[in-house]
Amino acid sequence: MITSASKELRPAELIQRKRDGEELSPSEITELALAYGRGDVPDYQMAAFCMAVYFRGMTAAETHALTDAFVQSGETVDLSPLGRKVVDKHSTGGVGDKTSIALAPLVAACGVPFAKMSGRGLGHTGGTLDKLESIPGFSVDLEMDAFLRQVQDVGVAIIGQTAELVPADKDLYALRDVTATVDIIPLIASSIMSKKIAGGADAIVLDVKVGDGAFMKTLESARELAEAMRELGLRAGREVVCELTDMDQPLGRAVGNALEIREAVATLRGEGPDDFVELVLGAASHLLALSDLGVDASEGRRRAEAALGDGSALEAYERWIRAQGGDPALEVLPSAPVVRPVAAPGDGYVQAIAATEIGEAALRLGAGRARKGDAIDHAVGLLCLAKRGDRVETGAPLVEVHATTEAAAERAVSEVKDAYRIGSERPDPRPIVLDVIA
Ligand code: URA
């Protein structure tokens, strides 16, 4: 609700006070964000405000007020008619991150309703919706009542975020994207958490990626972001567990939409790559522990492992994909006409794989979009056959490039070669889950 003070809102004064390091009152933050959402504050003033926040930061009270204002700017989803505790999961974005596609049906197979609204990918990390849209017929545009019905009947739904959900954040995120003000913890935390809060789930697992391919390059900054988001969730009455997970190399092997769907399905068949399986089982154990099943995380993990082993997770995936109009058969997924290996230039251990460079090579192949609205080629991408710590011989395939043309494949081969570092020393093992904040 806008108070009468909003008539006197003076954005320039608020920008100046934030620039000078002053804390703004919650009502000032709320009024500014809501006025921006209504179009009453122009982009140039909001951009200046974000830059002031970039250098001065925000207090917990300011971040909370901003999150609240984002939620108030649009509609919210009421999942209470389901009569169950509903869980959701969010990742801050990584290269090869197809976690939701395996995790959602796995959790549903264990009897826990999973409802998620998702966004599209921008930059070197792909979006869950783009990955799902590589499945012929799959629709991400469900009306709200159909969304709720599907969660009730099938136990799982992932749809695109509607335009009515948190519109002020939608505009502000687009503005931040072009004004170098994305990578600032209070703005990321309020942007992500406003969408999770408006999305209605009771309990949320947040996967905060750490490393070269992520927003947060260090464990300390990832922990700071995780704690800020958890605090916002708790203040809104949601249960939140944060996992800090490794993004210093691509997750699993597949990077690219249809390739990632194949890998998620392989995982549901019990044939996934070790790091990805571990990440999915860890997240499932927390979601089951947060659910109304009344189990702890170790029992949650046992049940999730059983659902991977007995085929019930795969069955839940097939039911889910059919419910949203898609064909779950792998043969119908698009595949690229040109497949080229990248040969190891020498003997040794894979010491590092630059996740950002792999993500950007996949993007240039057409798997992602550099600008909003760019078309995506669902078939193309990369399969990282060798991962950090693997021993390789000269000429052995490090990566498989899936491309539309020979020229695109050739360029990707040389880019990918540069992303791999091979040396005589085996690197120390690094777990996929680096820390859990609960
Ligand atoms: N994802 C979001 O939704 N918002 C941010 O600010 C950053 C990542």
Portion in strands: 15-25%
Anisotropy-based shape:
globular
The run of helices and strands is HHHHEHEHHEHHEHEEHHHHEEHEEEHEE
Residues in helix, %:
40-55%
Beta strand count = 13
Q: Helix- and strand-based class?
A: alpha/beta
N- and C-termini, Cα separation:
33 Å
Number of helices: 16
Strands across the major sheet, in which order? 1-4-5-13
Extract low-pLDDT stretches: 1-6
Radius of gyration of CA atoms, rounded to a whole number: 22 Å
**Bound heterogens, unique:** uracil
Q: Roughly what is the average pLDDT, rounded to an integer?
A: 94
Biggest beta sheet attributes:
4 strands, mixed
Task: Give me the secondary-structure topology.
Elements: H1 11-19, H2 26-38, H3 43-56, H4 60-72, E1 87-91, H5 99-109, E2 114-118, H6 128-132, H7 144-154, E3 156-160, H8 167-177, H9 185-199, E4 203-210, H10 219-235, E5 239-246, E6 254-255, H11 257-268, H12 274-290, H13 297-309, H14 312-323, E7 338-343, E8 348-353, H15 355-367, E9 381-384, E10 391-392, E11 397-403, H16 406-419, E12 420-423, E13 433-437
Parallel strand pairs: 1-4, 2-3, 4-5
Antiparallel strand pairs: 5-13, 6-9, 7-11, 8-10, 8-12, 9-11
Helix pairs in contact: 1-3, 2-4, 2-8, 4-9, 5-11, 5-12, 5-14, 9-10, 12-13, 15-16
The chain binds uracil.
Uracil is lined by residues 173, 182, 187-188, 191-192.
